[in-house]
Amino acid sequence: MQEVFAVGLFVVVLAFIAFELAHRTVLALFGAAVLVAVGVVSQEEAATEFIDWNTIGLLAGMMVIVAILERTGVFEYLAIKSAQWGGAKPGRILILLALVTAFLSAFLDNVTTVILMVPVTFLIADALDTSPMPFLLTQVMASNIGGAATLIGDPPNILIGSAAGLTFADFVVNLTPIVLISLPVVLGILYLMFRKDLRGSDNAEEVIANMDAAGSIRDGVLLRRSLIILGLVILAFFLHGALHLEAATIALFGGAALMLYSGVNVEEILRDVEWPTLLFFVGLFILVGGLEVTGFVGSIAEALTGVGAGTSATTAVVVILGSGLASGIVDNIPFTATMIPVIQDLAEAEGLSEAEVRPLWWSLALGADFGGNLTLIGASANVVVAGMSERAGQKISFVKFMLYGIPVTLASLALATVYVVLRYF
């Protein structure tokens, strides 16, 4: 009975979000509160087991750093330079920004990257006198593709790497090739879908050429201090294993250190943090926790691997496609966390060696990462971009995101499936 209730409530909340009948943060928190109130999830379970505080802390810390960076004028500088490099051609700039986003996502993590890139995107769209929507959607989808390339690029990879003992180099060797194959295809699809919207004003080239990039830097001292802290944070992300620190600890430490070092008004900075986005994640994690505790997500995960039991190639294909679809619906972080013990149990039951089970780990990573492009709640980066965009007066609807996400996800998952089968079987 509880399983039916949890699933029904999740579907209702998802439908209300999809049709924008109320704000997604309110809906997620209300749904989470209902689950706790009726006893499906206890308050202690919600706070200690289901909410991924590492994700929340990572987002909060990086939002603080970005809020301070915004005050330096560095985003205006990057916007002007990017537009000038792109020759004020919207289509060319769209591809350029997407490539930069994908590259940075592999090394910063995709959530941090989109937090840094969204302000730049709005400034460029304003200078071009065109809609920012094609740029925002292309960048967030590129971030989910690019983030698949490394251990730290996407939260599901961090979970998989930790559980399976996979190194940074393992991810680069095994997943970077398919990322390099998929990215041009995805960008080509999005360019074709957006080509009619990529129209700048007649005088955009002249306006952008006359812009003074260097003059946009408002506070050189603050910029220098911010870049020092940001550089140390990025370095710590690379060394997080040796430091024995979670990403959230590093980001929050960096945010707090920068507020102290820069001497900014703390209350003003904290007002710029995307609290609705953070609270949406809190509610979403609890809602998915309700699906987990009632056994629904576990049943889906077991069904995915059970279909191809005994045939490794078939199992890998089912894991890629099934994880891609499921991750787009319930968020790729909690789904990945649920799938990890299932794959471990499968490997033990069938007596698979560490080398034999690795293709299943790569299948799970690719399915979860690429599947995150399916819906607005499929990946953390999607939700962050939606929150920042809405704050800037450009709302990204659930349905609109999915219209572009479906072809991108299907194409990338198809390529990933072929890649895994040809390379490992």
Automatic annotation (TrEMBL):
It is a multi-pass membrane protein. CDD domains: P_permease (cd01116). GO terms for cellular component: plasma membrane. It comes from the Bacteria. The chain crosses the membrane at residues 53-72, 93-125, 171-194, 226-243, 249-266, 278-301, 307-330, 401-422. GO terms for molecular function: arsenite transmembrane transporter activity. Keywords: Cell membrane, Membrane, Transmembrane, Transmembrane helix, Transport. Pfam families: CitMHS (PF03600). InterPro entries: Arsenical_pump_ArsB (IPR000802), Cit_transptr-like_dom (IPR004680), Diverse_Ion_Transporter (IPR051475). Residues 15-367 form the Citrate transporter-like domain. It is found in: Cell membrane. The keyword Transferase does not apply. Belongs to the CitM (TC 2.A.11) transporter family. This is Citrate transporter-like domain-containing protein. It comes from Rubrobacter tropicus.
